[in-house]
Amino acid sequence: MALERAVTREEQSTAISPQTPTAQESFNLRSSAGSAPGGAATAVPRTGNFTETNSASAGSRLCPSFSYSEKFQDCQNSSGIEIREGDENAAATEVAVGAGVAPDAAATPHALAPEGQQEGLSHRRKAIIVLALCLCVFLAALDQTIITTAIPIIAAQFNSATGYTWIGSSYLLTSAAFMPAWGKLSDIWGRKPVLLSAATIFLIGSILCAAAQNLGMLLAGRVLQGLGAGGQLGLVNVTISDLIAVRERGVYLSYIGLTWAFASAIGPVLGGVFTEKVTWRLCFWINVPIAVLSMSSLICLLHLQSPKITVKEGLKRVDWLGIALVASGTVLFLLGVEFGGVSHPWDSPIVICFILFGILILCSFVYVEWRVAKLPIMPIKLFTNRTNACAYFVGLLHGFIFIAGCYFIPLYFQAVRGDTALMAGVYVLPYVMALSVVSAISGLIIARTARIPTFPAATNIRQVIWAAVTMMTLGAGLIIDLDRTSGWDKIVIYQIIAGMGCGPLFQSPLIAIHANIDHRDVGTATVAFTFLRTLGTALAICIGLVVFQNSMQSQSHDLAGGRLPDEVLDAISGHSAASSVGFVQTLEPAERAVARDAYARGLSTMWDFFLAVSACCFLFSLGIRKHYLSRQVNSTQPAKVRRRKTGEDEHEGV
After folding, report:
1. What pLDDT digit, counting tens, does each position of 169-228 carry?
2. Domain final position from 310, 345, 374
3. Which of 51, 150, 184, 539 has the fewest CB atoms within 10 Å, i.e. the most exposed one?
4. Are residues 102 and 84 located together in one domain of the fold?
């Protein structure tokens, strides 16, 4: 049922006069089936707040935007004038003119731009912005793994045994712990300033690490790096969501996903090259020029409307209790999981206390966000919907399988096949390349099929998720079969299948969430998804190592009795198994073959666990329902529009 209201030039100037105290008129529309006399159509029987604005051209029509109804999300008009539903939390509203928006962004209601006009962004400028955002993700993901091959040398240089654990974990802990806070901060002060703040913190941390003269200075830099990386990983997807319509979003989110995957996989290779050929400090110095280039591009080209709020008012709106609870609970829980079976036995008081108190604090966080916080950093309502809850679990469990491929497939090449760390990083490229290519292809499929009128785009997302999870489960099951004698045909094909399954799951569950939530919650929902996936990667490494170590320990009894010397058994048993790969290469050929077979069995047992995780991921994917995919840019912080005149025509650009 079309909504129209004929407004003459005189009526427009009367309806919105300079003397009017506000630039909006709230009214309730009532309707009947027919049109009113005189050509003015009667209104739909729907109540809501709408904004009536003056048009630059005579005879333009006004069209309301129903932000909360799938049936009306595509409401457009021929004149380029849109009427927006008012923001419940702000007094002002925004008005969209053509592809742009009014400069007044005191409030942050939904900004809608028709498909193809997406806030006036030219293709070239959009490409540069997305490239700059990909560089942010590249650096944040790279520093998770680039240091792994350099840690032994760094720990030896600073003469610290504890450095082996803390150099890596300090980055991961702070990245995951503070990630939820960045999303809410960007809602308060704006995406661009908060994202640039996170990038600046990461840059300072990188410089501090590169110039570190002792372990304490290095750990301080890693903490700052992790703090900034958490903001970059979370806010990049949010910024993409502010710029791109839901139906087109899969393409751009796939670029982010493949960047993350490529950086995570290439990190150990670069770290090994830098450490062996130059210096381990280059692992951090390389961040500086890339970060400066990315930040400069975003400063010059990314123009998003930020809420006009003072620092004092913004600080009052921050959920400080929620930030403290989620940060402390996450750190304690991950520390307990990381210490268990490595530096302390699982039944030791410190491990039990860390895990127990971490869980209790996280439960308190859930209660505070549900009942206490006025502006929660992670609203519980995001998880009460079946589709959202299932999509979040898919993202969490996808983090398990994705990082398992990046972390444990190289271990297979080193421990079972006897390759160097550098070559192990090269041999895992089939997994990474398959993941990257299929991630991009799946994003294109979602975007292209969404434009076909006879093809239900919402159903397409579910099919992409189901196909991806099926391939991921198949790949995890096939990798179990790899042993010391496996041929390269098996090794390459199995990696490709696993990568094809992991690739599409970087963006498709997030798109399903975006299609099912109010646009005001896109920021917190996106950061929550990234947080859970990051948490999944952290848990996967810890739990996977525990399963592997326990399997190696259980084999020590079978390998005793003369098959292996006692010193070799001690080296490859329990928590020392992963760090004894180099020692195994020095054994006699017969002993080395026995040890490598033991490693193969241990890794197969570990992949049994990941196969079960992937099967659970498939079950959760079945709970994702079909939802409408809007072809409009629905943003709480739209791109600013700058007008420029060429002759008598006006063009809009960002």
Report:
1. 788 888 888 888 888 888 888 889 999 999 999 999 999 999 998 888 998 999 999 999
2. 374
3. 539
4. yes
Residue 573: inside a domain, yes or no? Answer: no
Residue 398 confidence (pLDDT)? 93
Question: Is 161's pLDDT higher than 80?
Answer: no
- For residues 297 and 444, the model is more confident at 297
The SS3 call for residue 508 is: helix
Please check whether residues 190 and 255 belong to one and the same domain: yes
Contacts of 646 (CB under 8 A, 6+ apart): none
Question: Are 134 and 223 part of one and the same domain?
Answer: yes
In 3D space, the residue among 114, 89, 306 whose CA is nearest the CA of residue 191 turns out to be 306
Are residues 95 and 148 located together in one domain of the fold?
Answer: no
86 Cβ contact list (under 8 Å, min separation 6): 24, 26, 49, 50, 51, 93, 109
Is 27 or 559 the better-scoring residue by pLDDT? 559
Handedness of CA 211, 212, 218, 223 (dihedral sign): negative
User: In this structure, are 91 and 219 located in the same domain?
Assistant: no
The number of distinct structural domains making up the chain is: 3
| 631 SS3 class | coil
Residues 423 and 412 in one domain: yes
Q: Are residues 411 and 526 in the same domain?
A: yes
Residue with tokens 């006069």, as numbered in its chain: 17
DSSP 638: P
Q: Which residues have C-beta within 8 Å of that of residue 350, sequence separation ≥ 6?
A: 336, 339, 344
> Which residue would you say has higher pLDDT here, 272 or 292?
292
Specify the range with the lowest mean pLDDT, choosing from 48-57, 474-483, 484-493, 526-535: 48-57
